[in-house]
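From the pipeline queue, job 12 of 40. The input is one protein chain; the requested action is below.

Action: predict structure.
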Amino acid sequence: MPFDPVRDAVLNSPATEGLPTSPSVARRATHLSVLLNSDSDPLPRPSSSLSQNINFEPTDKLVFSEPLKRASDNPVSLSKSRTSTSFFPPASTVSPAMRPLPLLYNPTHRITPPGSLSTPMSKAEMEMYKSYVGKGTARLAKRKRLRDDLDTADEPLVKKLAGNSGAVVEHYNSRPEVGVIQRLESPIIGLKNFNNWVKSVLISKFAHPALAESTVRTQRNKGKVLDLGCGKGGDITKWSKAKISDYVGADIAAVSVEQAQERWEFNRNASRFQASFATYDFCTQNLEDVFTPDVLAKPFDVVSSQFCIHYAFGKEETARRMLRNVSRWMRPGGTFIGTIPNAEQLLEHLRELPPETQDLSFGNAVYRVRFESREHSGFFGHKYWFFLQDAVEDVPEYLVHWDNFVSLAAEYDLQLLYKEEFHYVFSEHQEHPEFKPLMVRMRVMDVNGESSMDEHQWEAANIYIAFAFRKR
């Protein structure tokens, strides 16, 4: 017999002790009109009954009132009933066969047996449900609390990466993805727009020619790009506008990679090019150990690494592995473009600090750099801590000594094409027929030529340089 919650409540109520357990009791009607207007009460009423507690009398007006019904109980449609003089026919004219049936709990697609709902849970079941998480909750938890996954034994990404790499991963994994509106409200939105404009200049000047010569093509698109340190996919739109055919995004932060893939999936032009994503540390892993042979079957025309290769210069070994991963899978004639902090500029600020100062830090309201030591021998491992408002939260980085970088890159068949500080990129292209209107569209400045950056943001932009190499 289907489970009837009203019957269950009646039989288990303290007010029904001593009641008969006949089928008539078990099938007591549960429809509101019948409960309120039954001519005779089918249940004997002991002295402790609920009806007596509320002073129920046989002459109660409810007994003689018209039944309360729902529109679905009336055989006449709702539209027709609105025009009739009486919404329902009098109760006396309704035959017992037409009276509403009890509303019984009778699901059509049961997961549990019919009798299980009234069966108490065992102690084992109680313990299980204390910590039970359904599929829907588990999916929500995965999307909202991705950092918690880092503490599990299956994927201890931060703990596997020693020292500075772990700190970098933890920082970028913890940064939330915000919507377009919130990004526009960033206190350094002018600087962010300017940095994006510089990257667009690099892509247009050096990536577009390499993509045009590509043999990797579809019906409408051409070219294959490797985005090392893709982050949350901020450059996917730029590559979409470049009409590439294949994109491979890799980053050390797993959460960022997931968000980059979501951005690609929701990009309105995503269907125009194929994309592959993976969590990947270019300092310690080879590219072929992460991506399948199908992804690497055809060489890349462009490798882009924005604001991240300086993490590789903690040791010569990691710097070489980074350059090997750039060059190994890029075709001859391909282009390597990127942006890094300007070591010469940072060292100049360090030398300007008074000799007696113990605090080896400098900056302004937007950025701050703190060195661990004033002097350092060699080209690798000169560490400093970097803070950039609404972007980088005091993360360890390494100086990239430029001449050493160029000579090291030459060993991997990478020939220097371009190197300029961001200020000079602006000076060189501010009147360019393509890049000047682009500055307005990207909100670097307005139509009157007024910059969206204040002096602090402009100073922060000066610590970066843009570069391009070509593979021989």
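Job complete. The first helix runs from residue 5 to 12.
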